[in-house]
Amino acid sequence: MEYFPAPLERLVEQFARLPGIGGKSAQRLAFYVLGLPEEEARAFADAIVDAKRSVTCCPVCRNFTAGGLCPICASPKRDGSMICVVADPRDVAAVERSREYNGRYHVLHGVISPMNHVGPDDLAIKPLLERVAEGGVAEVIMATNPDTEGEATAMYIARLLKPFDVRVTRLAYGIPVGGHLEFADDATLMRALEGRREM
Amino acid sequence: MEYFPAPLERLVEQFARLPGIGGKSAQRLAFYVLGLPEEEARAFADAIVDAKRSVTCCPVCRNFTAGGLCPICASPKRDGSMICVVADPRDVAAVERSREYNGRYHVLHGVISPMNHVGPDDLAIKPLLERVAEGGVAEVIMATNPDTEGEATAMYIARLLKPFDVRVTRLAYGIPVGGHLEFADDATLMRALEGRREM
């Protein structure tokens, strides 16, 4: 790979570190960026720095936000008595796309996964319990992925919520077992929200 | 897509503009970058700006270089009487990997493609003719891709080189017809260089 100048080589390496991007793809992307007009390449670089600097986690629901409360926690139109618990901010976007849900969210930022050394303390579970303990919450919908780890995480949290006076539900298995919430289509997600059941 | 904060949304959009990156992939990449430590995200951004700023075209062969002559044009060990004409800097890397060639290169930065509004004047053909006119060149190897456009570009340049006292050759069809030079394996490229023929 010593055939490209060092700065180009470094850019190829940066792209190659991204998930799902192999060596040839990294080359293709780096060459594409090199072919962009100066200001567009600069805009790309700025977008990285800017996102990294200004995107934080909402102090209430831990979803990504551009500072302060996220728009959903800040909105008086959303039903504060319902909390939909998801593993990832992308799952918030997926549930929002179904247009079936008007409550608030809680983002765990992962699932319990002993294989990957992720335990309950690595997730935003304690802030969830604190939200429920503060009162005003009638239902917690466990919307982690319907796979082994998502299921185990949902069970674990459901058990922790037992002492509280809240209904804990799980998305119905309208979502394909073993799949990922992020890739579910809107109709399936709508069916899953409608058919949620006691756990 | 209004579910992510604006700076994150902008980063997703930047990734989605890259070739071969769809909406879901762009999200995945943007979230990955957001999860990187501050200094690594900064290094990625810097690599883009740095590559864009410091990588230029070699004034002789038009290959990418980090300023001044490229290492191949600057090397006294390379045979200046041979010029291998390729469409893309990535093709230089591909030919170099075959370890069969010790001459110099000329990078056209594209092929003649009326469909994409790329004519001969959009390519580095004139600088090639000037190099040959200066003398000292015994052979020009046309190593554009073995597809319709690469073939047509090779024919076009071969005709322009007719008045000069140089041997013009074409890579042998060891390379699979309709394929791309960039993806050829080393052995195939070696065979193709060995079997090059008069045109």
Descriptors:
two-stranded antiparallel ribbon; homodimer; 8 helices; elongated; five-stranded mixed sheet; alpha/beta; 199 residues
SSE topology sketch:
The structure is a homodimer of 199-residue chains.
Chain A: H1 6-16, H2 23-35, H3 38-54, E1 56-57, E2 64-65, H4 71-74, E3 79-86, H5 89-97, E4 103-107, H6 125-133, E5 139-142, H7 148-161, E6 167-170, H8 186-194, E7 197-198
Parallel strand pairs in A: 3-4, 3-5, 5-6
Antiparallel strand pairs in A: 1-2, 6-7
Written description of the protein model:
The structure is a homodimer of 199-residue chains. Chain A is an alpha/beta fold. Chain A has eight helices and seven strands; from the N terminus they run H-H-H-E-E-H-E-H-E-H-E-H-E-H-E. Chain A has helices at residues 6-16, 23-35, 38-54, 71-74, 89-97, 125-133, 148-161, 186-194, and strands at residues 56-57, 64-65, 79-86, 103-107, 139-142, 167-170, 197-198. Chain A has a five-stranded mixed β-sheet with strand order 4-3-5-6-7. In chain A, helix 1 (6-16) crosses helix 2 (23-35). The longest helix of chain A has 17 residues, at 38-54. The first copy, chain A, starts with 5 loop residues before the first helix and ends with a strand. The mean pLDDT of chain A is 88. Chains A and B meet through helix 1, helix 2, helix 3, strand 2 and helix 5 of A and helix 1, helix 2, helix 3, strand 2 and helix 5 of B.
